[in-house]
Specification:
Strand order of the largest sheet of chain A: 1-10-7-4-2-3
Number of domains of chain B: 1
Distance between the termini of chain B: 61 Å
Mean pLDDT of chain B: 83
CATH class of one domain in chain A: Alpha Beta
Number of helices of chain B: 6
Number of strands of chain B: 12
Radius of gyration of chain B: 21 Å
Radius of gyration of chain A: 22 Å
CATH architecture of chain B: 3-Layer(aba) Sandwich
Bound molecules: iron/sulfur cluster
CATH superfamily of chain B: NagB/RpiA/CoA transferase-like
Oligomer: heterodimer
Largest interface: A-B, 98 and 79 residues
CATH topology of one domain in chain A: Rossmann fold
Helix content of chain A: 40-55%
Structural class of chain B: alpha/beta
Strand content of chain B: 15-25%
Helix content of chain B: 10-25%
CATH architecture of one domain in chain A: 3-Layer(aba) Sandwich
Mean pLDDT of chain A: 87
C-alpha cells in the first residue's frame, strides 16, 4: 500500500524477502570478505576527506534544506526545468512508471535504427529494468562503467549503488573477463591496472562507433536546464560526447533549484561517495551540445508515493552517494543482493518500500538494527533510523508483518555488533539457533515453524 | 490525462507545505577566501598523480615544448584559441598542430600552422572523425577556472582556447595551461565563476576507477595522463 493510495513504482525494486535472500549471501564467505575489505577502505577515506572541511556540518545542513525546498515546490521546479530544457531544444518526456519509461526510451532508440546503445552508469535505468526492455526489442545495451560491465559480463546483479560489483574481488573479476570478454588476453593478471586496461580496450571501439547513448543524471538544474553527471573513469564523458543521440533518464527528485546550489552538492557528493576531494570528471551540459539530439525522460515510478508521506519523503533527498551502505554493519554482512532491490543498504531499506508500497517490501524496514551510523554519515541528513521505525509501523498497519520481518529484526541486531556477530559465527549455529527461537522460513532447513516465537532472538541472546 | 499532467497532479497532491525553512548557507561562501593557493593546488594535483610544472609567463612555450618532448608526442592538437606562441616552439621537435574550429560545420576545419612536411597536415573533424583524434598523441588547452582545495580544473567548451568536448577526451594525454589568476580557493568560487557556462568538464586528475576493491586505479577511458602547467 502506498501512501494516500498514490500509484506505486515498478521495475527492479522487489526481490525475495530479505531474510531468505540474506541466507544465501551470508553463506558466501568470499563475498563477505570482499565487502568488508572494500567498505573498510572507503570508510577511512571518507572520514579523512570529510574531516578536512571545517564547514562540513554547514554544507550538510544546506544540502538537506535545498532538497527539502525542491520537494516542497517540486511541481514548480519540474515545470521550470522542462521550460529551460525545451527552450534550448532538448526533447522532454514524462513517465508515470517503469513500464512507461521503458516504452518511451525503447521507442526513441528504435527510431534511430541502432541495434546497440552505450550506457553511462545510471541507477534509474537499473531500477526501471531498461536493459531488459531494450533486449526485448533486439537492442543490446553496453554498460560502460567498469563495475556495471563486470556485473553485465558476469551475468550478475548489482549489489551497491556506486560500485555495483563491490562483492567481487580482483581475481573473480579476472575470471569474469577471461571467460566473457571477447579477445581478452588469456594471460590477463588480476592486477587492477591490468583489469582496467582490459576494459579500456574492450570498450574503446564501442565509444567511437555506437551512435546512441543513455545516461542518468546526478543533478538537474531547474533554473537553467543544465544536467550534471559525476563520474570517475571517463566512460561518462565518452557516452555524453561522442554519440549523436543522447537520452538521459532522470528521476523527478534529482532537481536543484539554481546553478549556485551545486556549490553545495559538488562538495558533499565526491567526499561522501568515493572519499575523494573531487571525482575525476564531472560533465555539465545545457541543452543539446555540438550537434547532438538530446532527450530527457522524467520518471516518477513511485517517487510521488514517497513524497506523499510526510515522515518518509526525506528519502527523496538522497544523492546516491552510498556512504550509508559503506557504513552499515548489516549491509557489510549480508551484501546488497539480500535487499532484493536496485537500492540496497540503509537507503534501500527506506526507499524501496516507499517506491513500491510497503506491502511489496514488508521485510526491508526490519533489515536494520537502528544503530544510527547511516544518519551520521548521510550528506543530506536523512534520518534513516527514524524513518525505518515509521515504516515498520506502516508495515504493521498494513498487517503485513511476517515471521520473516520479526526474524530479520533479530538478525539485524546481531549483525550490528562485530563482537556479537563473531561470536555467533563461531558458534556456527546461527541458523539452528534462530530457527529454534524465531520462525524463519527460508533461513534454515526447518521449513515449517508455524507457531509464534516463545521468545525473540534478542531475548534469547541476552538471556545467555 | 497526459503523463506530464498526471505526474504534476500527483506531485501537487503529494507534496508538503509550500514554505519549508529557508536554506541556511553558513558554509564558506564564494569570494570569502581570497585567491587560490598555488602550492596547495599543485599538491592536490600531484595527489591525483597529475604532472605539474610551475613556471613564469615567459617560460610557457618552452615548457610546453619540453613537456611534449618528454612525452614523445608526435601529433599534437591545440585548441584553436590558444595563443599561437604556446606551440610555436614545438615545431622544431617535429610536432604539428591542427586547430579545431568552433561553430559552423566541423568538416570545414582547416589546419593552421606549419606541419612537419613528412607527416602532412591533418584536419580534425569533430564529431565526425574521432578517429583522427584517436591517432593524436596529445592535446593542449587553456582552462576557465581551477580550484586549489580540490585540485580541479574546469573547461568551458564554448571557449575557443578550450575546444569542443571530444578534443580533450579522446587523446591519451592532456596538457592544460592554468594562469595563477584562474585559481580560486574553493568549489563555491568556481561555481560562481562558471555561472552561465553551458558546457563544462570538471577534471581532477587523470581518468581513474575505484571499482576494483574500491582502490583508485589511474587510467581508464579518459586521458590517462594529465599535465598541468601553472603560470605564476
Ligand atoms: S541516504 Fe544519504 S548516505 Fe545514503 S546514499 Fe543517500 S545521500 Fe548517501
Amino acid at each position: 500500500m502506498t501512501f494516500l493510495g498514490m500509484p506505486a513504482g515498478g521495475g527492479n525494486l522487489t526481490g525475495e524477502p530479505f531474510p531468505k535472500a540474506a541466507k544465501n549471501t551470508l553463506a558466501n564467505a568470499q563475498m563477505r570478505r570482499n565487502l568488508a575489505k572494500a567498505t573498510g577502505t572507503i570508510r577511512t577515506k571518507r572520514a579523512n576527506v570529510v574531516a578536512e572541511l571545517p564547514d562540513w556540518a554547514d554544507l550538510r545542513a544546506a544540502g538537506a534544506a535545498i532538497k527539502d525546498e525542491v520537494l516542497a515546490n517540486l511541481d514548480d521546479y519540474l515545470v521550470r526545468f522542462e521550460e529551460a530544457l525545451t527552450s534550448r531544444g532538448t526533447h522532454v518526456h514524462w513517465a508515470r512508471d517503469a513500464d512507461e519509461a521503458n516504452r518511451i526510451i525503447t521507442g526513441l532508440v528504435q527510431a534511430t535504427g541502432t541495434r546497440e546503445v552505450i550506457k553511462v552508469k545510471s541507477m534509474a535505468t537499473v531500477e526501471i529494468g531498461l536493459n531488459e526492455a531494450l533486449a526485448d526489442v533486439g537492442v543490446h545495451a553496453v554498460e560502460t562503467d567498469l563495475a556495471e560491465l563486470i556485473v553485465q559480463l558476469g551475468n550478475d546483479k548489482s549489489s551497491h549503488i556506486l560500485v555495483p560489483a563491490i562483492h567481487r574481488n580482483r581475481s573473480e573479476i579476472r575470471e569474469v573477463f577471461r571467460r566473457e570478454m571477447p579477445g581478452v588476453d588469456p594471460d590477463l593478471t588480476d592486477d587492477p591496472p591490468a583489469l582496467a586496461e582490459a576494459a579500456r580496450e574492450h570498450l574503446r571501439r564501442k565509444f567511437l562507433t555506437v551512435d546512441v547513448a543513455i545516461s542518468g543524471a546526478n543533478f538537474g538544474v531547474a533554473e537553467t536546464g543544465a544536467l550534471v553527471v559525476v563520474e570517475s573513469e571517463g566512460n561518462g564523458r565518452m557516452c555524453l560526447t561522442l554519440p549523436r543521440t543522447l537520452i538521459s533518464v532522470v528521476g523527478i527528485e534529482k532537481l536543484v533549484p539554481t546553478w549556485q546550489d551545486l556549490e553545495v552538492f559538488l562538495q558533499l557528493l565526491p567526499r561522501s561517495s568515493t572519499g575523494e576531494r573531487m571525482n575525476p570528471y564531472t560533465s555539465v551540459w545545457t541543452g543539446p551540445t555540438e550537434g547532438q539530439t538530446s532527450h530527457v525522460v522524467l520518471v516518477d515510478n513511485g517517487r510521488t508515493a514517497t513524497l506523499a508521506d510526510p515522515d518518509g519523503r526525506a528519502a527523496l533527498r538522497c544523492i546516491r552517494c552510498s556512504a550509508c551502505l559503506n557504513s552499515c554493519p548489516v549491509y557489510e554482512r549480508t551484501g546488497g543482493h539480500a535487499y532484493g532491490s536496485t537500492y540496497p543498504g540503509p537507503i534501500g531499506a527506506v526507499l524501496s518500500p516507499q517506491l513500491t508500497g510497503v506491502d511489496k517490501n514488508p521485510t526491508l524496514p526490519f533489515a536494520s538494527s537502528l544503530c544510527g551510523v547511516c544518519y551520521d554519515v548521510c550528506p543530506v541528513a536523512i534520518d534513516i533510523p527514524s524513518m525505518l521505525v515509521h515504516l515498520r509501523e506502516r508495515v504493521t498497519e498494513s498487517k503485513r508483518t511476517t515471521p520473516e520481518s520479526t526474524a530479520m529484526r533479530a538478525m539485524a541486531w546481531a549483525m550490528s555488533d562485530a563482537r556479537r556477530w563473531r561470536r555467533l559465527i563461531r558458534l556456527g549455529k546461527f541458523g539452528r539457533v534462530a530457527s529454534r527461537h524465531v520462525p524463519l522460513p527460508g533461513w534454515t532447513t526447518a521449513r515449517d515453524l508455524p507457531q509464534p516465537p516463545k521468545e525473540t532472538f534478542r531475548d534469547w541472546w541476552e538471556s545467555r | 490525462m497526459s503523463a506530464r499532467d498526471e505526474v504534476l497532479a500527483r506531485v501537487r497532491r503529494a507534496k508538503g507545505p509550500r514554505d519549508p525553512a529557508p536554506v541556511p548557507r553558513d558554509y564558506r561562501a564564494a569570494g570569502t577566501r581570497g585567491p587560490g593557493d598555488l602550492d596547495l593546488f599543485a599538491e592536490r594535483l600531484r595527489d591525483y598523480r597529475a604532472l605539474v610544472r610551475i613556471v613564469n609567463a615567459d617560460q610557457v612555450a618552452e615548457t610546453i615544448a619540453a613537456a611534449l618532448r618528454d612525452r614523445g608526442a608526435r601529433r599534437v592538437v591545440a585548441a584553436p584559441g590558444t595563443p599561437a606562441e604556446w606551440t610555436e616552439l614545438s615545431y622544431p621537435a617535429g610536432i604539428f598542430e591542427s586547430r579545431v574550429p568552433l561553430g559552423g560545420d566541423p568538416r570545414e576545419a582547416e589546419p593552421t600552422g606549419t606541419p612537419d612536411a613528412a607527416s602532412g597536415p591533418e584536419v580534425i573533424r569533430i564529431p565526425v572523425d574521432v578517429d583522427t583524434l584517436e591517432r593524436t598523441d596529445a592535446v593542449v588547452t587553456a582552462c576557465h577556472v581551477a580550484i586549489a582545495e580540490t585540485g580541479t580544473i574546469v573547461l568551458d567548451h564554448d571557449a575557443a582556447d578550450q575546444g569542443p568536448r571530444a578534443l580533450t577526451l579522446v587523446p591519451d594525454y592532456h596538457l592544460v595551461v592554468v594562469r595563477a589568476d584562474q585559481v580560486v580557493a574553493g568549489v563555491p568560487d568556481a561555481v560562481a565563476a562558471l555561472a552561465g557556462v553551458r558546457t563544462q568538464t570538471w577534471i581532477s586528475g587523470g581518468s581513474a576507477t575505484s571499482d576494483i576493491e574500491l582502490e583508485r586505479v589511474e587510467g581508464v577511458h579518459g586521458p590517462r595522463t594529465l599535465e598541468v602547467v601553472i603560470v605564476r
